[in-house]
Amino acid sequence: MEKIRVFILLVILAVVIIQSLQDKADLNWKNSFYVAVYPVNVENNPQVEQYIQHLTAADFVEASEFLNSEARRYGVPLYRPINIVLGKPISQLPPAPPVNGGIIEIMLWSLKLRYFAWRNEQDFSIHPQIQLYLLYFDPKQHRSLSHSTALQKGRVGRVNLFGEASYSQQNLVILSHELLHTLGANDKYDFANNMPAFPDGYGNPQQQPLFPQAKAELMGGRLVINESKAVIPKNLAQTVIGPKTAREIGWVN
Fold first, then answer.
1. What is the Cα–Cα distance from 198 to 181, expressed in whole angstroms?
2. Is the pTM of this model over 0.70?
3. Is 183 in contact with 250 (CB distance < 8 Å)?
4. Which residue among 5, 47, 66, 111 has the highest number of C-beta atoms inside a 10 angstrom radius?
5. E strands within the chain?
6. Is the sign of the CA dihedral 41, 45, 48, 52 positive or negative?
C-alpha cells in the first residue's frame, strides 16, 4: 500500500512539474489566451435554465474588454490578450474541492478537475487554454454562495454565480477574479473576514482620504468602505488590477 501511495505521489509531482514549466512559458504574453466558459445549471432550476438559455457571447464581452484594457495599461503589446468564448451548457458537475482535505486529497482533486475538463472539451475554432465552469444558482434559493475555485495548473476553474439578469454585472467581477487565478494571481484579502489586505488588496492604497476607496483591487475581491466594511463591486468599472497582481500574471517584471 505504501509503494502505491509513493507511486501516486511521484506521478502527481511529475505532472505538476511539467505543467508548471508550460505555465511559465505561456505567461510571456507573446500569444493571446482563449478562455472557454461553460454554463451549468447546478440544481436544474427552471428559472436558472431560462437565464442560461438566453446567454450569448456578448454577455461576456465586458469582462474581456476590461481585462484587455488593463493589460494595455501595463504595456502588454497584444491587441486582445484575453478572449472569452461561450461554450454550450453542460449537465455534468465538475468535481468539487475536498472539504478540509490534506495535500494528497487536494492534488487528486486537481487531477480529477483537469481530467473532467479534458473529457468535456468542446470544439472551437481556436483551442482554449483556459476553461471555466460557470455554476449558476437561483438567488431566491441562496442568499450567498461559497467561494469559487480556480487552478493555475491546468488553467481550469469552478465559478459560483447567480443565474439571474440582475446579477450579470457582478457575475463578471467574480468570473474575472477567478480567471486571473488561472494565470497565477493570488488572493489579496483576509480569508477570516473577506476584508482586502492593505496595501495590495486596495484599489488605491495612496488615496487620501483612504476611505472609502474609489475602486476595488480585483484580487482583493471587495470595495473597501471603511476599516471594517467592504462590499463586492457592482461591476468591473468599480475595479482595477493592481501592480502586484499585474506582476504575478506576467504583465510587468
1. 19
2. yes
3. yes
4. 66
5. 33-41, 82-86, 130-137, 149-151, 156-162, 216-217, 223-226, 229-231, 239-240
6. positive
Higher pLDDT, 3 or 127: 127
Question: C-alpha grid cell for residue 178?
Answer: 477567478
In the structure, what pLDDT confidence band is assigned to residue 107 with cuts at 50, 70 and 90? confident
Which is nearest to 66 in space by CA: 88, 28, 35? 35
d(Cα 43, Cα 55) in Å, to the nearest integer?
A: 18
DSSP run (H or E) holding 46: helix 46-53
Distance, in Å, from the CA atom of 220 to the CA atom of 204, rounded to the nearest integer, reads 11
Q: Is the pLDDT of residue 8 over 80?
A: no
Query: Averaged over 62-66, what is the pLDDT?
Result: 98
Nearest to 144 by CA among 156, 126, 162: 162
Q: List the grid coordinates of 245.
A: 497582481
